[in-house]
Amino acid sequence: MKYTPTRQILHRIRETIARDTGKPLSAAGEAEVEITLTSLGGESYPMALGQEFLDQEVTILIADLRGFTALTAAHPATTVVKLLNRCLIEMSEIIARHDGVIDKFMGDSIMVLFGAPVSREDDARRALACAVEMQMAMGALNLAHREHGMPDLFMGIGINTGIVLAGMLGSGRYSEYTVIGNEVNLTSRIEAFSLRGQVLISQSTYERCRDFVTASEPVDIHVKGNTLPLRVHELVAIPSLALKMPRQEIRRSHRVDIKLSLRYQLVQDGIVLPEVHTGVISDMGYHGVQVEVDRLLPLYSEIMLDFELPQVVHQARDIYAKVVAQKSLGRSARLGLEFTSVSRETERQIRLFVQMLIFAAPRL
User: Which CB contacts under 8 angstroms, 24+ apart, belong to 179-184?
Assistant: First the structure.
């Protein structure tokens, strides 16, 4: 039998479903999938194995769960798997509604394509709408988790648009449609800079959607492998769709002036460097701190914190945070840090600590 591209896709869908579920795709389901593929222009998909990869503009979305490593260390495997599955199922449904294509799951991360294998004029816009709805859904998931005594999950998202090589990669035994190229790597770097509950978009994506979104002023970040800085924007809202990033609410919390000693270590490429530095916390809120340290650190660089909360007798350890503000003080620096990973117990103790200091403050 001669396989057209649509038939090749259908064949691979049947194989995937049978492999993952242990059950074959029903005749009715096969017919529905084939109709859908044909209606999407499946005959033009570059799906043949061995066929040359094609240059194609895509918008890439990479989402990653923040603090997942700490979560796995603090909770039973059954709880972790249940949380992860619930989250990935919800995200997959949102992605499907926006016609995104899940390229792969990478543990606690998802890579999604808009523009491959099917290209549409509004690929970048759909990717941004998808990202906002994903972050909104995380809030709803966390409400459900709290009702069952389970920990919160937070997601950072990076989005980038550019030309990639798209096509089938693999062999006759196993293959998959994917994209490769520098734009994929850049998207991963952008995602790594995103804070929990945040969506960062590249300048190229912003240029295609500047009349569609509300975004922050550009920030230049330095990424590994690039000699020039990469310009990114934080996605704030999509007015025409009445979508607003819930992160704006997460940032709001009481803040107190304090003076606490801290220890910190730099984090590079996910590895905590051994050298320990010291500093002073001068301001604290539920989700972050202001510190004075011995050096000016780049925006969005990551550090691990360790400090004591004396009023509640708690040692806050292994708190990961990113630099969101910076100011040189000559031989020292003042940094605004936002927590990206903190245990549920330490988060509870920080809230209690801040609230105790608020109530202890004199009323004027």
Answer: 179/56, 179/58, 179/60, 179/103, 179/113, 179/116, 180/53, 183/58, 183/60, 184/60, 184/111
